[in-house]
Amino acid sequence: MSDFKEINITELTASPYNLFNKDWALLTAGNSEKFNTMTVSWGGVGILWNKNVATVYVRKSRYTLEFIDKFDHFSLTFGGDSMRKALTFCGKNSGRDYDKVKETGITPLFDKKVPYFKEGKLILICKKLYRQEMNAESFIDKDIIDKCYSDNDYHIIFIGEIEKALIKE
Q: What is the pTM of this model?
C-alpha cells in the first residue's frame, strides 16, 4: 500500500459522475489465488442505510459475476486516462479467454480482503451488502429494455459498503 494513502470517504472531492462515466473503473473480486476484473462505467456512490456505499451493475453473462457472488468484498479501481488502454481491454475481453493482468500490464495489489490495481488513482474497497437482479417487469420506462436489454442480459445490482478509500500519493 506504499503508493496509496487511506482517506475518509467524506474527503473525496471527485465527482461521482466523472468517476464512473468519464474515468471508468475496474471492478475486481476474488483473492490472491484467483480473481477477475472488468470495466464498469455505470455505478454510483452515496449514502444508504446510514452507510457510505458504492453501487455497481454486473450483467449475468460476465465472468466477474462468479467472483463477486463467491466473495464478500469487491474493489473499484478508478484510473482515468492513465489506465485507458487497460480499461478498454478489460471492458471488451473476458477473463474466461484472457489473463487480463498479463495482457494489459496492470499490477495487482492485495488488501487482505480483495485485489485492486497499483495503476489506479482512487481505490474503493467494498463489502457486499445487497444483491438484486433486474427484470423486465420492474422497468417503468419500457424503452430502456429495448435500448439496453434487447438480449435479455439484465444487470445484477450490487451495493457495497465502502470500508476503505485509498488515493494515490
A: 0.95
Cα 2–chain centre separation = 22
| Beta partners for residue 45, in sequence order | 54
Give the CA count within 13 Å in the CB-facing half-sphere of 77: 31
- Compute how many other C-beta atoms are within 10 angstroms of the C-beta atom of residue 25: 27
pLDDT single digits (tens) 35-68: 999 999 999 999 999 999 999 999 999 999 999 9
- The CA dihedral of 19, 134, 59, 128, to the nearest 10 degrees, is 60
Give me the helices (H) in 3-158, please.
16-17, 64-70, 84-92, 100-104, 143-148
